[in-house]
Amino acid sequence: MTSPDPSAVRTAIAAAWKAIDRDRLAELVVGLVDIPSPTGEEGELAQWAAGQLSAHGVPARTQWLDDRQANAVGELAGTGGGEDVLLYAPIDTLTVGDADEDVPWIGPALRADMQPRAQVHGDHVLGLGASNPKGHAASVMAAAEAIAAAGLDLPGSVLVGLGAGGMPTNGRIERGLSRHNAGQGAGCSFLLEQGVWADHAVIAKPGWAVAWEEVGLCWFEVEVEGSFSYVGSRHRMPYRNAIAGASVVVLELEEWFTTYAERHTDGLVAPQGIVSAIESGWPRMSSVTPALCRFYVDLRTSPRSPLADVRREFGAAVDAIRARHPELAVRWRSRLTIPGTATPVDAPVVTAAIAAWEELAGEPHRPIVANSGATDANILRQKGLPTARIGMDRIGPDAPLPLDFPAGMNVVDLREAERLTRHLVHTAVTLASRPAG
Fold this sequence. Notes:
Blueprint: H1 6-18, H2 22-33, H3 43-55, E1 60-64, E2 70-76, E3 85-90, H4 99-102, E4 119-121, E5 124-126, H5 134-149, E6 158-163, H6 186-193, E7 200-204, E8 213-214, E9 216-225, E10 229-230, H7 242-264, E11 273-280, E12 288-289, E13 292-301, H8 307-324, E14 330-338, E15 341-342, H9 348-361, H10 377-382, E16 387-390, H11 405-410, E17 411-413, H12 414-432
Parallel strand pairs: 3-6, 3-7, 7-16
Antiparallel strand pairs: 1-2, 2-6, 4-5, 5-17, 8-15, 9-13, 9-14, 10-12, 11-13
């Protein structure tokens, strides 16, 4: 296999870098934010993104999963004989941007950054998903457009995948969606199953460092039994409040999550656990206790932990709680499992991504450790694609909002987006210049 000419690769990267336009990046972010795309309803946005790519030199199409959910797929075809690279980002938002659905769980009201309407504040764009995922998707689009504008004749193809259903959620069936499997990488999996394939994949998700592994997740449903009873009879009849019993289990699990994370922290990951939701009783009828309280757990997993072992470990934790509290009737079941994954650190996609990072940063690469966030990188790797993850750094003190979890998702620094775009161009051109075989 003949190695690519380093000077030719360098010339190609420089030519594509010259075609990157900060104003175009801002235009892409604003356009992506202004079209709502909660998980399961990305069709309109996928159509818009495919149209934008096609209009800017990247032939693209909309790939429908059903009548409301879709991916956008683009391809800059290579001249032949080279390796192909997929630049990927999801396009759905974790929350909806509708006060009727998000409030009060997101807070007492929707802030400006929690709504699907973009606002430009100098170097920043604010709006639902403006950074994660839409700022990252904009960088993927801008990178492909810059390569197209430079007119590069790369041996391998550069593909663009903008995926539906990338957020860690199931479908909002109660809101009229037809499928539960609308999130958790549904679009990414469909993309690959329907013929979009490459030798390497780069996923754009938050964190200004190259990551080659990340956590998986196990979701569990836990039920605690009680007695259907009445406040007027509490002192006269047997009384077992399922909600009170569940609170005991929740608090003990919260303590166990800490020790679980300590046991499984290694490499780039520090898998965490949370109790995420709880349901019980009739809000209209506060006079009675329900016979059941149900709550939900997200337990992140190391790439080195088989999911069967994680299930057993969680089951043992529940058994220990039962032993300490024999008065409680507790049962559990698995609701969802996605393994953590890893790509070898010496894989070409990882070494190319690290080399790009070091050139842009001007220093040796420093990975971010203690990660507990999962992305569609797990889907890409499970399907057999060596994958590297790269993204933007957190917003700084000059952002229009102080950093908290929602601001980190919903405020993008265009300077960071431009740096990410440069990184994606560098990595894509490097990999698409490699001879196949």
